[in-house]
Amino acid sequence: MKRVIVYLVLFLLPFLLNALVIYFVDPYNLIREGKYIPDEVKYRCIGRTATTIPRGQVTWKMAKYARHPLPNVVFGDSRMTLMNEDYFTAHTGEELYNFAIAGGNLRTSIDFFWYCTTKTSLKRVFFQVGFINFNDKVYYDIVSPYWKFSNNLLTYFTNQDVCIDTYSLLYYNKSRNENFVNIDYRERKIDKWQRGYDLLELRMNDFIYPTNYLNEFKKIVNYCKKNGIEIYFIHIPNHRNFIDKVREYDKEVEFQAYFEDLKSLSPLIKASSLYPFTQNDANYKDVFHFKDEFADSISTEIWKEYINVYYQPAIAQTTKP
Questions:
Q1: Phi/psi of residue 143, each to 5°?
Q2: Would you say residue 73 has pLDDT above 70?
Q3: How far apart are CA 56 and CA 27, in angstroms?
């Protein structure tokens, strides 16, 4: 019996040690905010590949929001992840939580919205949409791992992806090899423009007008009206070639309906002032994504339109003596 126990302990020891390493490293900050490894190091490591970005960002941002829920939230995809809230905060005096996920879709944003309603009383929500995701065929799930981890923490210590990211983080924290976490360096041999066109072709040829998504947004809009929550949609203009491709794939009617349907639900921030920006190839990494260095100026244009057109500051209530 004693020998069996010894063998069992020896058998389990690697698993226990691995779980201990994951506990202390905690690559997605699910257990605690950065303690042993700085947050900026962890988040940089999450962004090392197109696969690790969404799986790491989802758990990271959901866990962070659970700890520090804010009433103002913006949801979106990769184009919204770099947006900052400086202009918004400067003119409203309020913080804004960026719940955008690279690799996310409308299902991701909708899941996040309902998640936020369980954490705090929302005040304003912004859904950055984009025609590329305005498609009922684009309905893949990237949120479920967080539910598994939060419902059963043991799965966090036994998940293969968590294990890979843990030891990748340990390597980067020790080596500080910037090429290891630099996705542009790792994808330097990829023609990103062609990859963007390939994705656009796939989405346009496999397009189902999103009646299901629109019904989901109607439910959200009705919920917001009942609960006094402001809701807005955001459209970030793509590179000028995007419109040419929409015409090429004969989706102009659907593209126009995209704007009309969103506006029929709630105000749409179109950031029209950015259209001259879309004419310059040098501003873009591909047909969808502007270069990172323009994120601040684009953020300002989006929030400036919101402030100038829709924002109404609360009027302080005074009581007469």
A1: -95, -25
A2: yes
A3: 8
User: What DSSP letter does each residue of 212-254 carry, written as one string?
Assistant: HHHHHHHHHHHHHHHTT-EEEEE-----HHHHHHHHHTT-HHH
Measured distance CA(249)–CA(73) in Å, rounded: 34
Q: Residue 225 in contact with residue 178, Cβ under 8 Å?
A: no
Cα distance between residue 198 and residue 175, in whole Å: 36
Distance CA 224, CA 127 (A): 13
Between the alpha carbon of residue 165 and those of residues 61, 282, 288, the distances in Å are 16, 34, 28
d(CA 9, CA 315): 66
Give the span between the Cα atoms of 160 and 52, in whole angstroms.
12
Residue 190's H or E segment, with its range, is: none
Q: What is the pLDDT of residues 95-151, one digit of tens each?
A: 999 999 999 999 999 999 999 999 999 999 999 999 999 999 999 999 999 999 999
The overall average pLDDT reported for the chain is 92
DSSP per-residue codes, 92-158: HS---EE---TT--HHHHHHHHHHHHTTS---EEEEE--GGG--TT-----SHHHHHHHH-THHHHH
How many CA within 13 A on the CB side of residue 191?
Answer: 6
Residue whose C-alpha is closest to residue 44's, from 141, 222, 142, 176: 176
Separation between Cα atoms, residue 98 and residue 81, nearest integer Å: 7
Give the helix, strand, coil percentages of the chain, each rounded to 5. 60, 5, 35
Tell me which DSSP letter residue 210 carries.
-
> Would you say how long the chain is, in residues?
321
- The predicted-structure confidence for 181-218, as pLDDT tens digits, reads as follows 999 888 989 999 999 999 999 999 999 999 999 999 99
Q: Which residue has the tokens 């390493």?
A: 21
Pick the closest to residue 80 from 142, 27, 132, 144 (CA basis): 132
